[in-house]
Amino acid sequence: MSATTSAETDLIKLYSSRILALAADIPRTERLEHPDATVKKRSPLCGSTVTVDLTLEDGRVSDFGQDVKACALGQAAASVVGEAIIGCTPEQLAQARDALRAMLKEDGPTPPAPFDGLEVLRPAAAYKNRHASIMLALEAATEAAEEIVAARSA
Question: Is 106 exposed, middle or buried (0-12, 13-18, 19+ CB in 10 A)?
């Protein structure tokens, strides 16, 4: 088998049926009318963007909306985030973001529950050019939560 065919086979495996199913069914894709914060993140390599709207009540995410314009991997990550985020603290978001980055870059452990569904993206670790797109939803959500906390403590 040639190197090209092998690489193509690996890429096809990367886009598993589970990743494609997640990408096809992203929850919470409605933008919020009155979010406490909105953050847009863009991957410079591929141009993927994710815009998140977030509200916090009693130190936990009470509502979340997202507009996802990303590859299937970025969409799958946004799907897991959208499913898991309600009820999370800003600290849990930051831990999940850091764990996802470590999982992709250093073969670190799977992000903790409720974000453990991100494990499905572990095969993408071999594709560094896809990491930024995968990180967008959690980076934007974490930044939005941090903005809200900072504004309320100011």
Answer: exposed
